[in-house]
Every structure is written in C-alpha cells, then in structure tokens.
Amino acid sequence: MTHHPDHEVELFKDEGAYEVYVDLPGYEREDVDLRWHDGRLHVTAEHRDDDGETRVYNRHVSVPRSVDAESITADYDDGVLNVRLPIAADESRPGTLIEVRESAPSE
Description:
- By secondary structure, the chain is mainly beta.
- The chain contains no helices and seven strands.
- It has strands at residues 9-14, 17-23, 32-37, 40-48, 54-62, 73-77, 80-86.
- A hairpin with a 5-residue loop joins strand 4 (40-48) and strand 5.
- The protein is elongated and about 70 Å long.
- The protein starts with 8 loop residues before the first strand and ends in a 21-residue tail after the last strand.
C-alpha cells in the first residue's frame, strides 16, 4: 500500500534510514530524475502533456546525517516517490560540534 503524504515532501527517520516521500501526481516514473549529490537528494520531474504544456517539479532534500549513497533505493507508485536513504555506518553528523554555553545573567 502506498503512503500518500499529507505534504508535498515528507521526511521520516526509520530503523537506520531516512524515508523521503514526494507527492508527484500526474507524473510518470519516466518523468522523474532522482540524484544524490553533495549530501542532498535532488528530485526533478518534467512532464509534457498532449497540448505541449510542460510541468516541471524541482526539490532538494537535506538530511542531518551521512548517507550510504551506494545503498539508496527508490520506488514510484500511484504518484508517490518513496526514497530510502540508509544512514552511513559511522552515523556521525557531519561538521564540527559547537558547544552551547549558558549566558551570564544580565545586571
């Protein structure tokens, strides 16, 4: 059964992976160009109808942890794109951790 998102794009964390659901009604699987680049999921879809009108969809989704790019999977069913982004084995968040200190009381 296909999960139909309440919003255009939904992101969930589930058992060691991120699940991204993208609502793309009116697009065919062949219209979708899906790429992982620079730590972000890039979703582009382009559909030309019988009247020559073209609809274009373009979104980028970032996640807070490193992803195992070689294990990403995607399915398209009933107008919904479902992308599974497995979290990399190290599971550390990229970047440098910055300590947040408590402010000194004002006088």
